[in-house]
Amino acid sequence: xxxxxxxxxxxxxxxxxxxxxxxxxxxxxxxxxxxxxxxxxxxxxxxxxxxxxxxxxxxxxxxxxxxxxxxxxxxxxxxxxxxxxxxxxxxxxxxxxxxxxxxxxxxxxxxxxxxxxxxxxxxxxxxxxxxxxxxxxxxxxxxxxxxxxxxxxxxxxxxxxxxxxxxxxxxxxxxxxxxxxxxxxxxxxxxxxxxxxxxxxxxxxxxxxxxxxxxxxxxxxxxxxxxxxxxxxxxxxxxxxxxxxxxxxxxxxxxxxxxxxxxxxxxxxxxxxxxxxxxxxxxxxxxxxxxxxxxxxxxxxxxxxxxxxxxxxxxxxxxxxxxxxxxxxxxxxxxxxxxxxxxxxxxxxxxxxxxxxxxxxxxxx
Length: 365
Hints:
Elements: H1 3-12, H2 23-30, E1 35-38, E2 46-52, E3 57-64, E4 82-84, E5 87-89, H3 97-108, E6 115-122, H4 133-142, E7 149-152, E8 164-166, E9 168-169, E10 172-180, E11 184-185, H5 195-200, H6 203-206, E12 209-210, E13 222-230, E14 237-238, E15 241-248, H7 256-266, E16 272-280, E17 283-284, H8 290-303, E18 308-310, H9 318-321, E19 327-330, E20 344-345, H10 347-362
Parallel strand pairs: 3-6, 3-7, 7-19, 8-18
Antiparallel strand pairs: 1-2, 2-6, 4-5, 5-20, 9-17, 10-15, 10-16, 11-14, 12-13, 13-15
Helix pairs in contact: 1-3, 3-10, 8-10
């Protein structure tokens, strides 16, 4: 197969989380000279496949073959790669079968590499992500087979292909506040403690406030209120309590400790409970590492564009890779239609992504 034929084949295989649409078996058979390790956990399918060419660096390409549900009102069949008007349409075209097809085809064509090349693939990135990439990494750590560098082929480009790579991601802290009051009759407010009134006095000092100033790589950690609920939906009873939810996409400058201190300062004197959970932790790969230098050069060689180093956006499986002490970046096609109806990319972007990965491998130094 050539790259576009392979890409279209992958789009046509329905692989909504945690299904893989048979793609992991296909990739294993497509790379017969590579050694395959299956690390399936419950209903999640995972594949690690590698080839040692020599004694040198271990470079891994990682990604997911699962996609979010297609939804309704597509102009084309979401599980048929339809090419029209200069675009290729289908679920997963951007997120992220373009990336998977590109690195699968790139490594298949490699004749020599001074080290080990591998692929890490999961069917559980768009879901809970508890039995996917993290389980493979734990398996590789036990086997002393962790890679030195990983490229996650998530869609990263913004306006033009080649304009951005991800060198890190913010973390995500979720917060749940229960502000306690005392229920009472609305005609006798002095006999009650109204949590709505109490929270209203401090909301202006909490909502959308930056908890740090950020830095050259991260935008500030912002306190974002996502939900407030209280009351009995009647006009004559003041509520007994108020529930408020918030999220902080945190930089390396803000931890749960700073979030707790911020809440305590603003709710001082009030009776409340606070619960925090951490969905992911912030990380950043040093931009002077071999991986960043090499992929910067590969992108510029193919596109003529020097990519910016970004940490914007949500999370990816790179959040599991970096804590293992592995240098990791993300690079893929534009991400302007991910998860949307009529998701699409261009033939040229997929061809260029494949060329970037081929160049990265051939020029690795």
